[in-house]
Amino acid sequence: MQTALHTLTLLGAIAACGTPALAQHTDIAVTVVDGAIATATTGAEAPIPTRVFSATFGDTGVARFTSNPGFDALPGTFAAGTRTGFTPRTGLRTYESSALTPVTTEELEIKFLTLATVVGAEPSPGFDLAVQSNGGWHRHLSFTLRSSGAKLPPSGLYVAELELYSTDGVTLPSAPFWIVFNDGRPAADVEEAMAWVTANLAQGDSPCPGDLNGDGDVGAADLATLLSAWGSSGADLTADGDTNAADLAVLLSAWGACR
Amino acid sequence: MNHVTFIALASTTLALASPALAADKEPHTDIWVTASGGTLVTGGWDHLTGEVVNPSQRVFEAEFGIDPAFPFSTDEPGIGSDLAGTTLSMNLLSGLARWNGAGFDASPSWLLASYGGQDATTVAGGSFSFLVTAGLDLHPEYTLVGAGGADPASGIYLASFTVSASGLATSDVHYAVFNLGMAEADHAAAAGWVEMNLVPAPGAVAMLGIAGLVARRRRR
Questions:
Q1: Structural domain that includes position A167
Q2: What is the pTM of this model?
Q3: Closest-CA distance of chain A to residue B67, Å
Q4: C-alpha to C-alpha distance for A206 and A33, rounded to whole angstroms
């Protein structure tokens, strides 16, 4: 299976080679499943459980800045009057050649109005925001890549590991999830990083990322679903807005009964 | 029924249905920006459904203080657009007004609108720009500041904006009606007043067009 994964990852990289950096984004769908917060992709007809997302610095024309991905919980997800927030679980890391490396001087500022936290090599406390009166929680945080040193941060892929929590005293925090922030790298590099994070970090205690039909098994039916959604967002396991070779790689790497 | 009667009736109905609850603040529509005939236009966009619910909407409502952590700030109304690849400038016009129950007066408070480190105020005007990407859902930050930096007074505040872009004619003015601590019925009444008094009705626009044609014919 590892060979198949590598082959398909390579195919995905080849297929994506030469395409411009990702511009389209999908928000992070926030749901509550079995009493715990869960993350999923938006855009498809039904949310697909996902824990790896992408964002592009400069996507709206402001260098080293993005307000994507947003967080999108439908009305009724949380109790009005409570708050939902995030916690950085690790420091900021860069992805290069199938490895994550702690940053040196680079920092990720995460801000919403007057609240802010800065994630450098070490994690930092997060913050929470009020749930809307209808129980929804739609928020776009501001993410800014900066440096504590004299030089601007180099272009690269920066990976933040976060979890979500609720202050309602009942709902359990989410499993960890990851956002791959792209600053100036081609789309193929982003796909590779997302596939690597999915395969190496997100599958440890994952509810089964390739189980598209939720039957507890990744099999032919899931493969058929993925192939029928090829080119759309219908079976987007890597949250890049498209069903492509990277998603196929994730599915095949999880083939069999969910762990 | 004239406009004043309609507004008064609508306000009364709203007040009865929703008795002055500061917490009764439902999400409002975001600003949809598109182009029609080479001119930028705004509409009302429901982010939840992704639908443009009112293609000619020019009055938008928002609430300060929904989150107690930010009593004088909000990130609504958000902005969506189908003009992928276009850089839009959201231009905040100078002058902030406050609802007096029957109209708007100039306010000593002022509004700061920010996005990505770009600031505009109702003191000096200004703009912030952004590139439209597929699936754009942008939420600028709006902060109300009292005179001399003090906390602003509760009230309903009116700010005016246009949208501009290279190669397209600038939009008509659109309005954001912000509520700070007042009843939703008052908020709705203030927004209704703006709709009736500052936004020409389609019929009025048609009349202006006819008047223009008549004037041109007379000049001939």
A1: 2-257
A2: 0.78
A3: 5
A4: 13
